[in-house]
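User: Can you help me understand a structure? I only have the sequence.
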Amino acid sequence: MTTRLRIAGLAGILALVATLPGCLPDDQQTDSLDPTTAGRAELPPETLAQIDSGNARYRRGEYEAAATSFREATASSPDDPTGWFGLYMAQQALGNAAAADSALDAARELAPGASLIRMPTATPDSGGGRP
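Assistant: Let's start by predicting it. Here is the structure, written out as tokens:
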């Protein structure tokens, strides 16, 4: 293969790879909890503030404070899975397995098909399971 053909082939691959990130959100269909969806707009302002506060606190590593914010979100909007999933993440980070499992169960009940709350199941050869 000539150098010119190799360069042309490489350029084509690079062009394809460069377009993939822009295509993925529209091309992949999931039922994940997406904060940009219309569901977020339907939540009361206090719930949105509690979720945003919980997310910010979680990112800073303030897991107990994040759990408090997410608990408040679940109290103000108990039928929304977002607060429950945030509470699961905070409790998981704190090492509170029972509380994390309880919050995850609530999130799964409210959004059974959401990909972000489907945890891997153990297989005989993987040695894995739910964290």
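Now, to help you interpret it: The CA atoms of residues 2 and 88 lie 56 Å apart. The chain is about 65% helix and 0% strand. Let me know which part you'd like to focus on.
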